[in-house]
Design brief:
GO molecular function, one term: flavin adenine dinucleotide binding
Strand order of the largest sheet: 4-3-2-1-6-7-8-9-5
Strand content: 15-25%
Mean pLDDT: 89
Helix content: 25-40%
EC number: 1.6.2.4
Number of domains: 5
Number of strands: 27
Protein name: NADPH--hemoprotein reductase
Keywords: Flavoprotein, Membrane, Transmembrane, Transmembrane helix
Length: 732
């Protein structure tokens, strides 16, 4: 709960001040560049720290008969405002040792002055100054709350600079750069706030009462080079020296303005006749201005420039993180008390919720009573049969923000019936605490008397869809629930919707419920057979996936028409030349293996679609055999025979084997595999690849049979070949 408060505070402060921070950051970068640029060319004199007023003032008065003032700016460039021997006015950078002019004083450009005004007051005068000051303070609060979040993430100061778990670039950059620029941004925000408080009078910036010293009436005149105060005062410590208007007039004085005081000096005797110290507020104001602008140091100005630039990056990455965390909305069709499958999610940045929601939506589409919630919302589930836990690990082994109370809730709330549980952990193997919290939850549930293990703890490294579908395979086969096993379904980087034109569509018949639909994309590149097409029949979040067969640049789908089927019904009602919005999802895990010595394709029903496209694209002549199962031998299968004959002539297909479950001699694909058992085991033993596409039940039966054959003939289980990518599947 505490973590959530800090996070919401951090986000709320950033949201309120975003527009102002963008303006101040952009102008801050420009002004930091100007602070560096104004030091070039450098008019700073070497050993300026060794030059006293006693040495430079007499030397300058020999060159310039009338001097109005001598000033030293924050770059320690010396400027003179005077009249030379020819009566000409001089205002330039000089060498204080001999009065030599080094360069003209160039005023800031209109562009820089415009940025200064925008940065200080947003062109709104006093109102703008108040707004800038408030935003500076908000930036301070944002920085503090961000630092607290990092401390909580890293479990204290001790691990503050430890390695950061990388979920995605924006999150990683936000945290790492936050640590790197913590001090500069704190300085920017604090000094900006202080300068604002001085400007509006909250901080008293007045001088102290001057101290007046009486001069002795008989004080002897002194040469300026012998004035004690001039001999003690270095030019580098002075901001400005105002010269007497009339020489030898005892009522006219030198005025020395230093960083912390003002001295009034007699031009006759050199005595200090008045001294006024600046209040601490003025001293702090000058220091704050130096730190805020970087005007006294090139290195610090560059640091401030990068810090300002990084604030812009913070804004962008922060909102990317927020979008990723909130983009997947939890929508439940059933209440917790009615759910048969409960999915609980522990996520820090929203990526784990994406995986859980993909499973949740598929379960709902399959008619299951699925319920999705955060782990902190754990409660009694009186009708639950399955409990699925999807959780990441936060920081160095801690629970994510929405799972901090899960362990205590499990100990307190006992389910009243036996519930089968499965835990899926998400993390990165680059860190020693890989899936530590998932492991903790798995052990906790194993100890509960009401919980029965359904599958062992499964971990997913770096949000890998390929690793996640291994769990999907296992859970689907164990529960006989149809779930998408193509990694493309679970990739978080999704392409946008594309407009596809319906080119052709066949009709169903009494003995054939399958129809073919051909779609023409706007671009014929960027996809291949085995990729997936996602459609949205109801124009909502519900997706339906179909495996693509590529035919001369067209998308070819084989679809079985179901009564009241959402996806199949939608596609079947489309007419030629109509348009459909869909998303093409790359599925490289089910692309044709070009380097395989031989390939066997096993399909039933509509699963043949991608294989037809792969065969047509097999221009390299890789040996391919196809085993396909259907209910009836009808007009559609006759077309497949014609297709096979043509592809065989072109050396793209060796053989097509059919099995018909409703014919005179009922036969299944399993029977064909048993018949050719020696061929299948030899194929795998020699590096060949088996591809399976169709129903999940068919996949389960085929893999069980192949496993038995491989153990018997090759001495290896099927998992051995799966690990070597010799068994590829795309089943539902």
């Amino acid at each position: 709960m505490t973590l959530s408060i800090w996070r919401y505070a951090h986000l709320a402060l950033a949201f309120v001040s975003t527009l102002f921070l963008v303006i101040l950051s952009v102008t801050g970068v420009i002004l930091a560049f100007d602070a560096v640029n104004e030091k070039m060319p450098s008019y700073r004199i070497e050993q300026i720290d060794d030059i006293t007023l006693a040495a430079c003032i007499p030397a300058l008065q020999k060159v310039y008969p009338e001097i109005i003032e001598l000033s030293v700016d924050h770059n320690q460039f010396v400027t003179i405002d005077a009249t030379d021997a020819d009566g000409g006015h001089v205002k330039a950078y000089i060498d204080p040792r001999n009065g030599k002019v080094l360069g003209p004083v160039v005023p800031k450009s209109e562009f820089i002055q415009w940025n200064i005004a925008l940065h200080r007051s947003l062109f709104l005068k006093e109102t703008g100054r108040i707004a800038v000051g408030v935003v500076s303070f908000l930036l301070f609060l944002i920085t503090i709350s961000g630092a607290v979040l990092i401390l909580k993430r890293q479990q204290g100061v001790r691990h503050f600079f430890a390695k950061i778990n990388r979920d995605f670039f924006s999150q990683y950059f936000h945290v790492v750069s936050g640590r790197l620029f913590l001090i500069p941004i704190l300085v920017i925000s604090l000094t900006g706030t202080y300068l604002f408080m001085v400007r509006i009078g909250v901080m008293n910036a007045s001088e102290e009462e001057p101290v007046v010293s009486e001069q002795p009436a008989d004080a002897a005149p002194l040469d300026k080079s012998k004035f004690p105060v001039f001999q003690k005062t270095r030019l580098a410590d002075v901001e400005k020296v105002e010269f007497p208007l009339l020489e030898d007039d005892p009522e006219e004085y030198y005025v020395l303005k230093m960083r912390d005081k003002v001295l009034t000096v007699s031009q006759i005797t050199g005595a200090v006749v008045e001294q006024a110290a600046f209040g601490k507020a003025i001293v702090w104001e000058k220091l704050s201005l130096d730190l805020h602008t970087g005007r006294t140091s090139v290195v610090w100005a560059i640091v401030l420039g990068f810090a300002s630039l990084n604030i812009l990056a913070f804004i962008y990455t922060g909102f990317v993180m927020t979008w990723k965390r909130t983009r997947t909305k939890i929508r439940n069709k059933f209440k917790a008390g009615n759910a048969e499958i409960v999915i609980l999610v522990g996520t820090e940045n929203g990526s784990t919720l994406f995986f859980a929601n993909q499973i949740h939506q598929q379960l709902l589409a399959d008619g299951k009573r699925s319920f999705l919630a955060e782990m902190n919302q754990y409660q009694p589930y009186p009708q639950a049969e399955h409990l699925l836990i999807f959780t990441s690990t936060y920081g160095l082994g801690s629970p994510p923000a929405n799972a901090t109370h899960f362990n205590s809730l499990v100990e307190k709330i006992k389910q009243q019936q036996q519930v089968a549980f499965s835990v899926i952990g998400f993390g990165s193997k680059a860190y020693s605490d890989f899936c530590a919290f998932a492991n903790e939850v798995d052990q906790l549930l194993e100890k509960q008397p009401w919980a029965t293990r359904y599958l062992g703890l499964h971990t997913v490294n770096d949000k890998s869809p390929e690793e996640f579908v291994k769990w999907v395979h296992a859970w689907s086969e164990h529960s006989l629930t149809a779930l998408a096993t193509a990694p493309a379904v679970y990739t978080t980087k999704q392409t946008g919707l594309r407009s596809l034109k319906v080119v052709e569509k066949t009709l169903v018949s009494a003995d054939n419920a399958t129809f073919k639909i051909t779609l023409a994309p706007e671009s014929r590149n960027g996809f291949q057979s085995g990729d997936l097409l996602a459609i949205y029949p109801a124009s909502d979040s519900r997706e339906r996936f179909y495996s693509i067969g590529r035919n001369d640049g067209m998308i070819q789908l084989m679809v079985k028409l179901y009564e009241n089927g959402l996806g199949s019904g939608y596609l079947y009602q489309l007419e030629p030349n109509s348009k459909v919005k869909a998303r093409i999802m790359p599925n490289p895990a089910f692309h044709f293996p070009q380097k395989a010595p031989a390939v066997v394709m096993i399909a039933n029903g509509t699963g043949i679609a991608p294989f037809l496209g792969m065969v047509m694209d097999n221009r390299a002549g890789v040996p391919v055999s196809m085993y396909a199962g259907f209910r009836h031998d009808n007009e559609l299968t006759a077309q497949y025979r014609q297709f096979a004959a043509l592809q065989t002539e072109q050396n793209r297909l060796e053989m097509l084997h059919f099995a018909f479950s409703r014919g005179k001699e009922p036969q299944y694909v399993m029977d064909l595999i048993t018949r050719d058992a020696a061929y299948f085991t030899a194929l795998l033993a020699t590096g060949g690849v088996i591809m399976i596409c169709g129903s999940l039940r068919m996949q389960h039966d085929v893999e069980a049979l192949l496993n038995t054959l491989c153990v018997s003939e090759n001495g290896q289980c099927l998992d051995f070949y799966k690990a070597r990518n010799q068994v590829l599947t795309d089943c539902y």
